[in-house]
Amino acid sequence: MTNAYAPYSHYTVGAAILCDDGKIYSGVNVENASYGLTNCAERTAIFKAVSEGAKHVSKIIIINGTKELSKPCGACRQVMSEFMGPEDTVFLANNTNDFKEYTFKEILPLAFSDKDMD
Fold first, then answer.
1. What's the average model confidence in pLDDT over 68-96?
2. pLDDT at position 77, please?
3. What distance in Å separates the CA atoms of residue 24 and residue 16, rounded to the nearest whole number?
4. 1 burial type by CB count under 10 A (0-12 exposed, 13-18 middle, 19+ buried)
5. 11 labelled as ligand-binding?
6. Is 35 marked as a binding-site residue?
7. 36 and 60 in contact (C-beta within 8 Å)?
8. Is 19 assigned to a binding site?
9. β-strand pairing of 89-93 with 57-64
């Protein structure tokens, strides 16, 4: 989270994921003056993992620089659905190290997946 690039919103976010290969990958949000080009911490971590060969995320923790628990945006939830199963673990945390544990299914109960295209 300390490496986040958030000069516009000042909303810093960090994410760390544990993949089936046992490796941990991290990411931060990276903003852009053209907001649509901003990338969230969750997607940064997942894209890093996939670029290094990982294909399944078993756990993710998302933390931000406020007292509120982090909540992944819709785009991040959809990307997470590509690489996480319904029972995989999502931890949402805040800047005082409070956190709450969820299953991915609780975070996105009606995820769109490749099975919807059959």
1. 97
2. 97
3. 7
4. buried
5. no
6. yes
7. no
8. no
9. parallel
73 is in an annotated binding site: yes
Q: How much of the chain, in percent, has pLDDT values that exceed 70?
A: 100
Based on the number of CB atoms within 10 Å of its own CB, is 62 exposed (0-12), middle (13-18) or buried (19 or more)? buried
CB-based contacts of 9: which residues, under 8 Å, 6+ apart?
31
- Spacing of C-alpha 37 from chain mean position: 17
Sign of CA dihedral 48, 50, 26, 13: positive
Model confidence at 7, in pLDDT bands (50, 70, 90)? very high
Q: Identify the active-site residue in 42, 52, 82, 87.
A: 42
Q: pLDDT digits over 92-109, tens only?
A: 999 999 999 999 999 999
Tokens representing residue 59 in the block:
């756990």
On whether 9 is known to bind a ligand per the annotation, the reply is no
The band of 54, judged by pLDDT with boundaries at 50, 70 and 90, is very high
Is 82 a residue of the active site?
Answer: no
Q: In this structure, which CATH number among 3.30.390.30, 3.40.140.10, 2.60.40.10, 3.90.79.10 belongs to the domain 13-116? A: 3.40.140.10
